[in-house]
Amino acid sequence: MVDNKSKTGPGPDTNAVHGQTTEAGPSSSATSSQPKTPSARERLASLASHLLPQGNTEFDYVIVGGGTAGAVLADRLTQDKDVSVAVIEGGPSDVGLDRVLDLSRWLELLGSDLDYDYPTTEQPMGNSHIRHSRAKVLGGCSSHNTLISFRPFNADLDLWADGYGCPSWRSSAIQPYGDRLKLNIVPVAPQQRNQVARDWVQACETATGAPMIRDFNAQIAHNGGFQQGVGFFNIAYNPYDGSRSSASVAYLHPIMPHGPYRRNNLHLFLETWAQRLTFDEKDPQRVRGVAVRTKHGLEKTLTARREVLVCAGAVDSPRLLLHSGIGPKADLEKVGLPCRHDLPGVGENLHDHPESIIIWETKETPPETVMSSDAGLFLKVLPDSAEPFPMPSVPDLMFHIYQIPFTDNTNRMGYPHPDHAICMTPNICRSQARGKLSLASSDPAVKPLLNFRYFEDKDSYDAKILVEGMKWARKIAQQSPFKEHLVREIAPGAHIQTDEDLSEYARRAAHTVYHPAGTCKMGTPGRDAHVVVDERDLRVVGLRGIRVVDASVMPILPTINPMLTVLMVAERAADLITQDAWQKGIRRAQWE
Ligand SMILES: Cc1cc2nc3c(=O)[nH]c(=O)nc-3n(C[C@H](O)[C@H](O)[C@H](O)COP(=O)(O)OP(=O)(O)OC[C@H]3O[C@@H](n4cnc5c(N)ncnc54)[C@H](O)[C@@H]3O)c2cc1C
Fold first, then answer.
1. pTM of the prediction?
2. Is 515 a catalytic residue?
3. What are the CA-CA distances from residue 197 to residues 181, 190, 214, 230, 384 (Å)?
4. Using CA positions, which residue lies closest to atom 37 of ligand 1?
């Protein structure tokens, strides 16, 4: 049993440090095109600003979470210099943090001081030891992750539209937002493609018949997707120095105090934790602001003249709503929180891309790589009828290949840790398991309970996909010249052969691709009792002055790694919010 209640985790006591702001003060260099080294005076000003400003606590928009989605909104909304935006971010700035900015060091961040590190509850059918890494730093998980960058398939967005009651998210409307993204997204540079991965790609092609794809995103942009394919990933990075092109680097750095295009209307409250939302004194349905706590325990309320935009991610967005009394009434009362707005869907629909692992010892580890997981394979292994919404011509199984030993789960099961290894990690593109996030306590510092119900889906679809994946992995391992790199299969080992045994191993050794989503699901209000935000505008159903914009709004994860989809959701949200403001301006309507 995993202890979920013992640690206070990401709340104020352990995480928020200075309650500092990095406020963009008045500057003469707002339009300079050259980045400049901060002067001693600027460094002093920056230090002095490491306190919450006493006077300035009212802004047009207050964004909770300067992560992947929050960075996009902060940039897009401050393009209008007359609009003021506050960003409340639990972690520190990533500027100058080499361990964050150097993509190859991503593994150092897992479980570090920059990780909220959420455990799961006991998983009777799966692995109860999975830790969900969530980044506590500007840029959020895009400052933490491997930056594998896939646009969503057309079929993924059309499934949101036709299967999940989100007609305004059809691919024809949403794909153009992929062209706007500011990240530097390129296929892995040839000089960083190591020989094991090159031979693996070739082995996959030979063993499975999946065609080699040279640029996955070009294929998606031109053809809407593909059914099978193998190749090196598109990654958001600078191939010349291996540095990240995260949401923070691409959207925030240029407009931050020391960036070339600093914006005085952007106010960053770093290492500051959003405790709960506050409501209008006269109007209980109108969210007014956010009560925050700094690392040093300073408490303040930031007020939004227009709207609060919750971008705290799939774990912390529903968590914040629940601590504000927005959620399933019975659950709130169970932990002693008064229910302000009964919304049964908050925290429901928790899901992920679960994966398993098959490990081979190798003779050596070639050094060339971007971040040790540079290539992938997509296959279609089960009939369309296996899914509730059939997805013809879309893969249902994805593999990453790790060119390093990734043995956290297999060590615990007693398998050895080789010095050199490759790991194939089959994952489920559209998992059918649905879990729930709930509160363990009314104390906002206590980590929430994450019950993914891994492998509890009724037809064992998820386990069947992984069994197929393990079998394909072994066929791939038999192909020359790839097989010449291998010494022996470490896990699960040659004695595990039947579907039953493969399933048992795959579930016990299961891990996550770190893609939790869906906990503030969007949809058509009234059509589904678990809809949390209205698909038309991302507003929280039944409330005013609040929208949710991040991975939590996805009704179902896209087939592929979701970061670009999150960024596209945020780009569209920025359009919705600004259009709404313009219309109000034209009608001279008040922000009630
Ligand atoms: C290790 C890892 C590897 C991954 N690899 C990939 C990959 O290669 N490709 C891919 O597509 N996806 C990948 N993902 C998933 C992807 O990064 C996420 O789905 C996506 O970044 C989520 O964006 P978000 O805006 O929803 O949340 P986040 O980016 O997590 O942003 C949430 C932000 O809110 C802040 N916050 C939360 N609560 C509060 C609060 N109460 N007060 C103040 N601030 C708060 C957090 O500090 C954080 O900065 C990976 C994720 C991880 C963790």
1. 0.93
2. yes
3. 28, 12, 14, 11, 30
4. 312
